[in-house]
What does this fold into?
Amino acid sequence: MKLKIIELEKEKIQLVLEGEGHTFVNALVEELLLDEEVDVAKYVIEFQFSDPEMLVTMKQGAKKDAATAILEAAKRINARCDDLLSCLKN
It folds into this structure.
């Protein structure tokens, strides 16, 4: 996956996830919204074959930045997938 960062601040990140579709980005947004420090997590795919553009903002006083929140959410998704795979192997 290739990321194109449009805007990067401590409390806000706007980026394009090149080559991704609704499946992964929707899961990532849902996982981000479980983080109590995340204020807004949303994405838009403007045209049918365009790349999703995601926006994440943090609540005032958040201890982590928006990029860290995305990284942590992706790691949680990865851990859940690993758990599912290990259950299927048994």
